[in-house]
Specification:
Length: about 280
């Protein structure tokens, strides 16, 4: 029986270490081959070196991923100003400005009953998710039709925005993670997102989407209000109809996101026909 127990133990140790050798090779680790009388002893003793290997290797793998994410974000931040100077359609900034003026007029004249901010919020909180759902559906259909990688990235971006809108503000991290994931994926697959990069209007629409969302968050988080406090030296100052403006800018961002997807689908179809 002791012999049987020893044989059973050696059998499972050998099988376990064999699996770890495969794991180490998959991670890029090479161990020198063993032969002769020391081979069995090495296999039996390698179990005790297993945990230090994992403890050293796994953090390195995570650090490498974090380094790749940070490198992609830095690359995106550095290239963004140059792209904006050369390719962004600056005339699109007129649209959010005119839309804010329009919302002031609608709210001030109580059109649709939107002088009451709760009525305006209730209506726009239906319009905005509907626009995001439309963009999500269009991106899915466009990818099925064209198999363009740019539409895959937009699909996940729309999915993150839609999830955040449905789940609530407490889940804004879902949208942030989606944005970071798309930036990293696009940075590592630049050749595959040429449809988006080469389409001046699609990329400009997408940039204007984020401009609308950022402006909306500046109002929602009270940044504009606090800047007004510094200018007027009055802590009771508050932007007029700020809640209505915030919700309307989010809805306008949804409109630009739909335009981004539609423009990208047209560009992808043209590119596919040209190939």
């Amino acid at each position: 029986m002791p012999l049987l127990r020893g044989q059973t133990r050696d059998f499972f140790v050998d099988r376990f270490n064999g699996g770890m050798v495969g794991f180490q090779r998959g991670c890029g680790h090479r161990r020198p081959p063993s032969s002769g009388c020391c081979a069995g002893a090495e296999n039996a003793n390698s179990y005790y070196h297993l945990h230090p290997y994992l403890n050293n290797r796994v953090p390195f793998m995570f650090k490498e991923k974090i380094r790749q994410v940070w490198s992609s974000l830095c690359s995106f931040a550095v290239s963004l100003p140059g792209w904006a100077r050369q390719n962004y359609v600056w005339g699109l900034l007129i649209v959010p400005c005119l839309f804010v003026v329009l919302m002031y007029y609608i709210s001030g004249n109580n059109i649709f009953g939107w002088q009451n901010s709760s009525y305006c919020k209730n209506d726009l909180e239906i319009i905005h998710p509907s626009l995001l759902a439309c963009a999500l559906l269009l991106a899915a259909v466009g990818w099925i039709k064209t198999r363009d990688f740019s539409l895959t990235c937009l699909f996940f971006l729309c999915a993150g925005a839609f999830s955040r809108e449905i789940l609530g503000q407490g889940y804004s991290s879902v949208f942030v993670i989606a944005i970071i994931g798309v930036i990293v994926c696009a940075d590592q697959n630049r050749e595959r997102i040429k449809t988006l990069i080469n389409s001046k209007w699609a990329s400009s629409f997408l940039a204007t989407t984020f401009i609308c969302y950022i402006a909306s968050q500046l109002l929602d988080r009270g940044v504009v209000k606090r800047i007004g406090w510094l200018v007027t030296m009055d802590t009771s100052w508050k932007p007029l109809y700020s809640s209505n403006i915030e919700e309307s800018l989010e809805a306008l961002g949804g409109v630009f996101l739909v335009l981004t997807v539609l423009t990208l689908i047209v560009s992808a179809i043209k590119r596919k026909k040209s190939e």
